[in-house]
Amino acid sequence: MYKQPTSNSRIVRRVKKRKLRKRIFFIAVPLLVFLSAFSYFTYLYITADSVFSKSYQDDGREKSELRDKVVNPSDDNVSILIMGVDASDIRNNADNSRTDTMMVATLNIKEKSVKLLSIPRDSLVYIPFDGSETRINSAHSKGGTTAAVETVENLLDIPIDYWVKVNFEAFIDVVDAIDGIKVDVPYEFREQDSSDVAGAIHLLPGEQQLDGEEALALARTRKLDNDIERGKRQQEIIKAIVKKAVSMNSILKIDDVMEAVGSNMTTNMSFSDMKSFITYGTAGKSLKIDSYSLEGEDYWVYNPKRIYFWKLDEEKLVETKELLQQHLDVKSIATPNDASTTEHASPN
């Protein structure tokens, strides 16, 4: 015989249903968040693999000749030569263009620290590729990436494990992808934009937010100072980009950053190598980046025309070599030529 449910039993059922819904909610929501995050990071991984694999270029070197064994960035201190080349050269005639910018980054895996050295493009150095003594920015035009790497190794007396060749127009896409960067503009200036429109970029002095075009203009200008100060500005811009890119605010835009970099870069780093550098990025505020430049003085040579060079200070150069060698924990290797030799300076 059917019995009408009592009010108490109905209340009990409602309470059980509410508890069940709460359990489902507290299980489902975290699960959905996890699955969404997992899907996004899987997407990022696949995108990174595709983008950076296209940027990879085998230079035929298993390791630097100054290394006894192959390095692994997951376990070893390594160095990276960063070369900035003209926008029109990055893909089609990149092997016969001069480098607009050269920097060397040494990374210490234990300290999670980076030392970033700017090499002035007019530095008078010995170029092993053809035995000439001329501006360092000519090394790449003489013998491509191989000549540039050999020249820097000879100059600094350290192995160059990896190199990255970047189209500095990528500044625009990368900076815009992370919604701009905050940097200190040292003075008021006008500079051409990426379309070579004279005076299109006008910046006033002071700390401010810059978009891609403005960041590129600041990185390139040297109208009111010199190449040394320009190198320092480029270092600050790189630091600002790295800081912003690894922040939580930019994590959802990292795929845009990868696309911007990947389409404007060639490197001998495999995707596997790149993944090893994640530990530096996840170091956050504890990641220490120290900036340096090669000191020297203005130097003019008549051969037969009046040609400008940046003559390196030999004592300071030795100090810089020792600093980088200690950071990499490598021994000094005698170099065959003096970087300051000027008797046969070439006009190139």
- The SS-based structural class is alpha+beta
> What Rg do the Cα atoms give?
26 Å
Please count the beta strands (DSSP E, at least 2 residues each): 14
Strands of the widest sheet, in order across it, are 11-6-1-2-3-12
Q: How many helical elements?
A: 9
Backbone shape: globular
Which blocks of ≥5 consecutive residues have pLDDT under 50? Answer: 34-38, 338-344
β-strand amount: 15-25%
**What is the average of the pLDDT values?**
80
From N to C, what is the helix and strand string? HEEEEEHEHEEEEHHHEHHEEEH
How far apart are the termini? 107 Å
Helix content range of the residues, please?
25-40%
Give a short account of the largest sheet: 6 strands, mixed
Q: Can you describe what's shown?
A:
With 348 residues, this protein is α+β, with helices and mostly antiparallel strands. It is built from nine helices and 14 strands. Strands 11-6-1-2-3-12 form a six-stranded mixed sheet, sandwiched between helices. Strand 4 and strand 5 form a beta hairpin. The chain starts with 6 loop residues before the first helix and ends in a 20-residue tail after the last helix. Mean pLDDT is 80; it is low at 34-38 and 338-344.
Topology:
Layout (H helix, E strand, L loop, with lengths): L6 H49 L22 E8 L13 E10 L4 E6 L5 E4 L4 E4 L3 H18 L5 E6 L2 H8 L3 E5 L3 E3 L9 E3 L2 E5 L1 H9 L6 H19 L8 H9 L2 E3 L3 H6 L1 H4 L6 E6 L2 E7 L3 E7 L1 H15 L20
Parallel strand pairs: 1-6, 3-12
Antiparallel strand pairs: 1-2, 2-3, 4-5, 6-11, 7-10, 8-9, 13-14
Helix pairs in contact: 1-6, 3-4, 3-6, 4-5
